[in-house]
Design brief:
single chain, alpha+beta, Outer Surface Protein A, domain 3, 3-stranded antiparallel β-sheet, two-stranded antiparallel ribbon, 21% strand, globular
Length: 118
């Protein structure tokens, strides 16, 4: 599993992903390098989540750079280009890192991708 070959995306899928515009979760707050989101209250058999509970994520400089550009207006491709330029890395590595980070954020429901119709 660790040594499996990575699948490459079909060109049309890759283009669609790069054209999408990531947008931050509306109820998230940023304080320095910490993103805080509220957690829905819930009562369970073994535990409960009280009202007003939050979850906090710490971002490094690169994560913060990507997070601040997830405004719903900037495309993934623009973020990748700025990332490569700002951190002086090649475009291929910048794209891979940015997409992996955005997938991580999406998996934690911190961002969503807006796709323009057409």
């Amino acid at each position: 599993m660790w040594f499996r070959k990575r699948k490459t995306l079909p060109p049309e899928v890759r283009e669609k992903i790069l054209a999408s515009k990531p947008i931050r979760r509306a109820d998230s707050t940023l304080n320095r390098s910490r993103v805080t989101i509220p957690i829905a209250p819930r009562r369970g058999f073994l535990f409960r989540i009280p009202e007003g509970a939050t979850k906090t994520f710490e971002l490094d400089a690169m994560g913060l750079f990507v997070w601040t550009r997830c405004d719903g207006e900037t495309t993934v491709e623009q973020i990748v280009e700025e990332f490569a330029e700002n951190f002086a890395i090649d475009r291929h590595r910048a794209e891979a890192s940015t997409l992996e980070f955005l997938n991580l954020l999406a998996g934690r429901a911190l961002v969503a991708r807006k796709v323009e119709p057409g």
